[in-house]
TrEMBL record:
Residues 5-144 form the HTH marR-type domain. The keyword Cytoplasm does not apply. Keywords: DNA-binding. This is MarR family transcriptional regulator. SMART domains: HTH_MARR. It comes from the Bacteria. The lineage of its organism: Bacteria, Bacillati, Bacillota, Bacilli, Bacillales. PANTHER family: MARR FAMILY REGULATORY PROTEIN, TRANSCRIPTIONAL REGULATOR, MARR FAMILY. Transmembrane segments: none annotated. It comes from Niallia oryzisoli. It holds the Pfam family MarR.
Amino acid sequence: METNEQELLEEADMLFRKMVRKFVKERDKIKIEGVMLPSFVILEKIMKDGEQRLTDLAEELDFTSGAITALCDKLEKRGLAVRKRHKKDRRIVWLDITGDGRDFINRNYYLKMNSISVLFNGFSQEEMKEQINGYRRLITNIERFSTTINEIANENECKKKI
């Protein structure tokens, strides 16, 4: 690999990691009527698609099971959502939005488009299309990231033993 190519890869890696950290840090500073943005996203998903299993919410929204539990606790405490146990299998927990939750989302719905606009401010439509394609390729690469690196590490470890 050329030094120039290696430098580009290292800079892309550093900027990608920095972008992810900054986004999470900034996202977690946003409160809407005292509700954190990730909780807003959960309510919005339920309002759009109906009640959701906690495990499905965690997977689809990329939250850990601990994070989804903590967020649901706060939503229930505020009266914006309610947990429901599955009638036949009590281990399955669903989350549904309450009337107050629906009012909250309706009152603040415009914030979603505003947040997206702020995030992608200044990009042309062509640049946005290029980014979307880049994100899709990155997601594909990320989906095989740990498997690929672990395979390389295992091969390397086997060579060490020989």
